[in-house]
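Example 3.2
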Amino acid sequence: MNSLLGSQIREAFSTAALHAGEPISIDTFDDEGASEHFELTHWRDHGYAKLKDRTPCLSFFTPNAFCFFLPAYLLAALDEPESWFSGDVASRLVPPKNDPSRPSYAAWWTRLSPDQRAAVVSFLMWMQSGYGAVPEADIARMEVRHGG
């Protein structure tokens, strides 16, 4: 694990909170087990072993739950940077080229603090430089359009 990046992520998200009773997943017929798996847990409770089969949950989280559990995914990806999991997590963090204001992206990105945004961009840059997981142009779009 890149300990400096791990520290940046932990510090940036140290005060992240999800209020008791707040929904974890969007209203859908199947949330890939997100509600059941993450209910009454903290992002610190989840490592790679608990998340490796849970990347689809990123698509079903509410924006607040996405922001709250995001550091768990980032840190799990740091633990297993060469796995498909890490590339999948990284690819879900960049805005689509044709619509960077897509609600599912903008809804969580705008909730992050500047330090949290910087941690996400640092993670993506690390994944790009070491593993080519995210095109540099995608990261640059995040930094320019969204103050990464």
